[in-house]
Design brief:
The protein has one domain. It is α+β, with helices and mostly antiparallel strands. It is globular and about 35 Å long. The relative contact order is 0.24. The protein has one helix and four strands, in the order βββαβ. A four-stranded antiparallel β-sheet has the order 3-2-1-4, covered by helices on one side. Strand 2 and strand 3 form a beta hairpin. The protein starts with about 20 loop residues before the first strand and ends with a strand.
Length: about 80
């Protein structure tokens, strides 16, 4: 079975793009969410400091869980 996916391999990609990455944002200033000391959720200003998800599905699932716990809207944004 061949499991190679050209859209996920930036070296051999037919489009020449990197794999997609997603991050979570929250609040009026759309601060990005990341993991801090002892796995605590912290806000960061820049997307390159945010925790990056490799799939849209995982980012959405995590955003829904956080929204339920924090009782605040959490958005998913595409980084690249």
């Amino acid at each position: 079975m061949n499991l190679w996916s050209p859209w996920l391999d930036p070296v051999r990609s037919l489009r020449g793009v990197d794999p997609e990455r997603y991050a979570l944002t929250m609040g009026e200033n759309h601060a990005y969410l990341s993991l801090g000391a002892e796995q605590a959720i912290v806000t960061v200003a820049r997307p390159d400091e945010a925790y990056q998800f490799h799939t849209h599905e995982r980012a959405v699932a995590t955003a829904r869980r956080l929204q339920a716990v924090l009782a605040r809207p959490v958005d998913v944004v595409k980084l690249r």
